[in-house]
Amino acid sequence: MRKVLAITTIRSDYDxxxxxxxxxxxxxxxxxxxxxxxxxxxxxxxxxxxxxxxDGFSILGEIESLHESxxxxxxxxxxxxxxxxxxxxxxxxxxxxxxxxxxxEDVLIGGMLGAFLNIPTIxxxxxxxxxxxxxxxxxxxxxxxxxxxxxVTIEEHKKRLLRMGEPAHRIFVSGNPAxxxxxxxxxxxxxxxxxxxxxGKDFTSYALxxxxxxxxxxxxxGEAFENILKALYIRGIPAAVSFPNSDPGHQEIIExxxxxxxxxxxxxxxxxxxxxxxxxxxxxxxxxxxxxxxxLEAASxxxxxxxxxxxxxxxxxxxxxxxxxxxxxxxxxxxxxxQSTPFREIVAKITNxxxxxxSALKIFEFIRNHDFxxxxxxxxxxxxxxxx
Length: 388
Prior knowledge:
Number of helices: 14
Number of domains: 2
Order of helices and strands: EHEHEHEHEHEHEHEHEHEHEHEEHHH
Number of strands: 13
Distance between the termini: 35 Å
CATH superfamily of the largest domain: Glycogen Phosphorylase B
CATH topology of the largest domain: Rossmann fold
CATH class of the largest domain: Alpha Beta
CATH architecture of the largest domain: 3-Layer(aba) Sandwich
Oligomer: single chain
Helix content: 25-40%
Low-confidence stretches: 192-197
Structural class: alpha/beta
Radius of gyration: 20 Å
Mean pLDDT: 91
């Protein structure tokens, strides 16, 4: 039985791979354990470690790594705390493989743990790229160089890794496993926030707003977030609104939320059980904000997505996504566009370019049938890598 360790520090990265974790957990070939840290353990962000426990996964250790100072130093300090807390846990358990997903600081730690402790690693969702200037993009690319192997979603991402000097035999294109939960769940007539008594207000037609801070200098997060609320209010569109992630600038957004709490047009939530969130997602008129979910997942419903501001700029996306500035008028115009008949007809016909909702099993079978330890020494010279 092969021991597999998955590192997760935030609800978003956990949801990306939860379908893969389930297959590994239920297999007689693997002993899966999760290393949990970051916002999972923070009450302010919903204590989502409880969902991991409810899903039945074994937890190797819980590391209270999140520094909530809302400063540029916070994520770096969080990474340092995670590394210090993880070294002995990982070294003592000696997994045969380490998994991590995305572009937050924990993936950099995962890559370092594997490289220095001589443990094979798989980085999921490498090769993606944004031109928004956010730290996450360079963290993603740096982690790719540290990692043993890459499981990516689309051919474009594979090509980017090849350009970075990663050889083709280290890359597997699987599609996005996060889409599997959409394929499993069919749209029903009850897919509205009003259909569940645990979901706040009695909305029958609403937008779903998910907005995270980018950079205080280039895009003041509080101002941008409030402009979205204003545009929705002007159009008379109720909204279910997510709290932000823990990136620097999140406190500005929370302060705006506190000012709008009594506004009957909006319902704010920190965290929802997966089934409740999926119901909320399926019942929305459109998605607005700057979450990667608009780029990666919304097309699977299909749902129109408005990406506000710089975050996610130039990522590969479907025809259901439009981009606009943080100006109230631009946001309002974008709202009008996605609600227009021609645009709705386009959205209704699209397929998700990131996968067909059958990726988790492909990934599981690939992991089960491959010996990643044979690839652990990265001796390839980027000057001699052949682009394919």
